[in-house]
UniProtKB/TrEMBL annotation:
InterPro entries: DinB/YfiT-like, Maleyloyr_isom, MDMPI_C-term_domain, MDMPI_metal-binding, SCP2_sterol-bd_dom_sf. It comes from Streptomyces phaeoluteigriseus. The keyword Membrane does not apply. The keyword Isomerase applies. Residues 11-139 form the Mycothiol-dependent maleylpyruvate isomerase metal-binding domain. GO terms for molecular function: isomerase activity; metal ion binding. This is Mycothiol maleylpyruvate isomerase. Keywords: Isomerase, Pyruvate. Residues 147-227 form the MDMPI C-terminal domain.
Amino acid sequence: MIDHAHDLASVRAATERLLTAVAELDNASVTQSSRLPGWSRGHVLAHLARNADALVNVLQGRPMYVDATLRDADIERDAPRALHVQLADLRDSAARFQEAGAAPADWSRTVELRNGVTDSAARVPFRRWAEVELHHVDLGIGYELEDLPEEFVVREIDFLTERFGGHTDVPPTRLTDGTRAWRTGREADSAEVTVTGSGADLLGWLAGRRDGSPLAVDGGPLPALPPL
């Protein structure tokens, strides 16, 4: 059972970590490249603010984005802003998301996200938590996958292995951090490939943040994962 109230509190804590870290930057740093190809740190910050507003739309029964073109245009528009403007927007949009999450609602209802994807309303706060944590890492300002809360790492691995589960281009794969194990890829009675590594390295590979080179692979090459 998903505890949306717990996840909303986790989003709040992750956002505070992000705001504190970003406040140490300067205007020049915001214009520098992030770890995401083609995006500056300003692009990442703008995306995070607009994503918060988009998830408010989801929780309130509106389309997440009017269309993909406007989504991208909004990010491009907001990316060059000065640091103090980025911070204020991040803080204000995060507050709007928390306010929407605090409103009485049927959290068992199904909501629609981008590209026709649907999910339980109760999982929206976790989706926002993932946005904040992973994009904090993407900024390249000292927050690494190893710094992520253990609960988040385990649950995001759960989420991503479920997402790739049944994917015909991914062989039946077992992942383990030495304590926990997950299955993903095509349906089969047994795994063809076993991938072993730390939680941070497994998550980095699944989320497209690392190439998987630190992982140990048995039974074949490291599977190529489809884009998220």
